[in-house]
Amino acid sequence: MPLKTARLNKQGLEHDRKFMLLKVREDGTFQNVQIIYFPECARLFQAIDGDDIVVTHRPTGIEKDGSNVPGQSHIATELRVPLKPNTAGLKTVDIHLYGAETRAYRMGAEPYDQWFSACLGYDVLLVYIGDGRRRILAHSPRQEAKTNKTSTAPITASSSSWLSSISSYITGIPQPSEGERPGDNKNEEDDDWLTFNEAAPYLVASQASLRDVSSRLPPGETADMMRFRPNIVVDGDEVTCWDEDYWGELLVSPSSCNGGGGGDEERSKQDKDDIGGRNSTCTLALTANCGRCLSINIDYETGRMAEGEAGMVLKKLMRDRRVDAGHKWSPIFGRYAHLLPSLKADAVITAAGHQDALAGAVIAVGDEVKVTKRNAERTVWRWPNT
């Protein structure tokens, strides 16, 4: 969902990654429905309408040989899902995602599981994370400060300027105590946790790097940022391709001019009501590189792996983008990021008692972005058991 403005907290964009689909295997166990294994999910679209998410299935419904896709519905249909379901009485299921576990609530067979199963052609469950939490196993700002692994260098003159603007939004590890179930740890002082994000709340990418990817394709073809699934995209005259490899911290500030979404009366009224305020800034700590997989070869228009050279983007990037020793076989595109605490937002949260909004802030298309910390060397991925 492209957004003009977005509310941020420590766990990600507001409402983001709170639901997930699980495929029911023949033996009764579950598999996380992730797009690398289930590219047909690219044909599920979401929109927020009041207190609901409206999910629309727009199937292509046609195989390469012209026949219908077996088991799949071929007519566009919609499902409404409450943004904040009442979890009382809902059954739970254990979730294992990217090494971090939690419990989630099953939304129920009718209409949720039945609708998604009919769309996709196999049995699935829709689950909601509710009050569940997944530990961040590595690369949170707190962990980075403890290990002191990241080397930094003074800010150069070019990087300390207002170099760019928000372009768009796409989109020694502690272990459970004995007897503790996944997701039971609710220590209010520990806000290093995730919903259904894989490794971090945010993924930052640049249009300059995407243009470099497009340059590797045949004339007339361009790479689609949707394939890389960042939720914050930065662009500007001073952003060069792959410069984000060295970004350590970004300061986001409301634009002084109407640069792609700021300045109109309607937005100004909304800004005054948002947590964090539009007169304040927010800081993102970029702590790790994002190693890419075959998912960047998916054609979102068909819900299948792309054909031709568009289906070889991963291979093209492997030639010169395997730049992280911790991601030995994976090319790098984008940086994982975390929202750093804001004193103003923390004061609001302490008074209100809502930890979900800890360090809340609002950013918008057109906001100015400043690199306030550059790393002297690229960071190295060190996820447990990888």
TrEMBL record:
Signal peptide: none annotated. Pfam families: MOSC. Residues 264-276 have a biased composition (Basic and acidic residues). InterPro entries: MoCF_Sase_C. Coiled coil: none annotated. Residues 175-372 form the MOSC domain. Residues 257-276 are annotated as: Disordered. This is MOSC domain-containing protein.
